[in-house]
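User: Hello! I'm new to structural biology and keep hearing that structure can be predicted from sequence alone. Could you demonstrate with Arginine biosynthesis bifunctional protein ArgJ? Please show me the input and the output so I can see what each looks like.

Assistant: Of course. The first part below is the input, the amino acid sequence of Arginine biosynthesis bifunctional protein ArgJ. The second part is the output, the predicted structure written as tokens.
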Amino acid sequence: MSEKQLYTIVEGGSITAPKGFTSGGLHCGLKKTERNDLAAILCEVPATAAAVYTTNVFQAAPLKVTRESLADGTLQAVIVNSGNANACTGDRGEADAYEMRAATARQLGVNELDVAVASTGVIGELLKMDCVRSGIAALPEKLEGGASGAEEFSQAILTTDLVKKESCVKVSVGGTEVIIAGAAKGSGMIHPNMATMLGFMTTDVVIDGEDLLNLLRSATNTTFNMITVDGDTSTNDMLIAMASGLAGNEKLTRLHPDWEAFAAAFTHVCRSLAMAIARDGEGATKLIEVQVSGAVHEDAAAAIAKTVVGSSLVKSAIFGADANWGRIIAAVGRAGVPVSPERVDIQLGEIEVLRGSRPVAFDEEKALHYLQKSDTVLITVTLADGSGSATAWGCDLTYDYVRINAAYRT
């Protein structure tokens, strides 16, 4: 049975689709525009929860607070703001993150240690806490279980993103329908080494915290950790998963016959969100997918795939529709893993450009047309060193990326 036959994609599904979840968002004044900048997810019961975090040594205050809340493996609510990262803000920033947690707990009527805090935006500026306080006070009336609340939430977490990122699937566990959903934001400072800039997953499955955490880490490694936009890892990266248990299925464990199906469905949601982030990279016009096979092992394949997709020269060539395979093989060679340099094949889509590390005559006009007209450019690298394979995603590097980031604060 193929992976896609193990679960069903729910078109239009959102983070409120699993049983027990509501969400919402509003504009409280952190952003200069009238776009939403404060949001929350609420579960009607304490949920089994897990998270992964940025590996950047400068970690924003909300991460410390969230780690503390997740110490017992449960969460009931998440409060999120955009427009300000609350990073590198010292004791004041930490106090503000704790205040956000406490205020959210009071307004939503939940235990303070069951609230996670997440922030994204400009680094090094203090939060406008008067705006945050009034926003949190107004949030309970905004929380809904339908599409409207999910839409407001998804819009509230965006910064330079052009589009919201959502994914939802359903899968059977012991004959019971279980739903998995996710929402994420990310467009710049994307080279996660853990997750995305901010990601949130909900499910109604009955599962233990340890199994949920292990699954989250495993799925992250092959999805969110395989995307790059600009090579920068944020101070605020965080991915949170919450399981309400309200589907009522028999407890899912790694020994359950439906574990494979659930894991595939869970990974699909992560992969969909990760690809959406890569496609929405700041200034991007194309999604780039790099498939590597024949490496000495999977870690080597992953290193090569991510090096190729993250190469500024490769990204620039794709933007310029230049079939310059030399930039690709150069990236393969500097990935820091063993490669037989005389046995590398490269394709752009279905166009073979390199065989056995030697140039292949190809139709330049056909290649130009492929690179100009394709929304997704596929680069295939085939090695002859083993059975390791991996896929990474990124985007082209355009003039607009510089324009956006040259004036990010102003």
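User: So the tokens describe the shape?

Assistant: Right, they're a compact way of writing down the 3D structure. Reading them back into a model, for example: The mean pLDDT is 91.
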